[in-house]
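Entry 14. Ran structure prediction on the chain below.
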Amino acid sequence: MLTSLYDARMVKKALSLFEQMPELPVGCSVPLLQALHIVTRDARINQDSRRKLKQVAHLVRFIEPLIHEAVARRGDVTVVDHGAGKSYLGFVLFDWVLRALELGRVEGIESRPELVARSQALAQTFGFERMGFHAMTVKEALSQQTIQGPVDIVTALHACDTATDDALDFALHHDAQAVVVVPCCQAEAAAVLRQNKALQLAKTPLSELWRHPLHTREMGSQVTNVLRCLRLEASGYQVTVTELVGWEHAMKNELIIAKRVGHAKRSAQTRLQEILETMGLQSLWPRFAPKGAASELA
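Output, structure tokens:
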């Protein structure tokens, strides 16, 4: 009797949650969302959590078809989530997609050991044996060869500043079939623009685009993502850029999706080099050099 009452309450809570967020898939684990502190114990969701879950849900929908493509191609799939944080994306991706497939792995890379330990415990609680978590930076994951075997999909949701570029390094090193990133806080290019501003103002009227501090920051963010796209194209990927969700849900909202097609686009590397030279960003070439390119500009 007590069990049936408990089950009835759980069903009622689940129905309440689905009314609040109709986009949630049928069969998703409400207890998991509660354990991730996205949903409260009484199956309510506040505005901040709603925004967070909406971003993750949209990203999962972009990644899901790439997972099915990988499974069709080689009968398995490995997704590597860089800058995983509390692993919201990894857990939701596993629960909504990989759990039903009964194959595939999600590997989370996160530099904060306490978050990694928490995610490991949570995966054990829910029986998600095909999830792994590694306490290291993205750069360390690359140098230590942590992930063994083929890497199909590399993703990073709001990996801050150059961590997104480290994730791209990882993807290119492993010849990942797909890359799905939502960049955040791109400060490196803005710092170089700021440093060389006086010289550039004397050289080209285009530097008016980043003359004022606010424009410098925004231009730095914009050009960083453009360079990332060109780098991927010059490394053999077909690139699509779109919005993750509506701008009312997140300011850092640019979604870059790249699928490996095998042949590098030569014009992309040429344009990448020309942009760096025109904007006085030559020092960033090692950061954005395509796979197989020289370590220094010609």
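The longest helix spans residues 47-74. Will compare against last week's run tomorrow.
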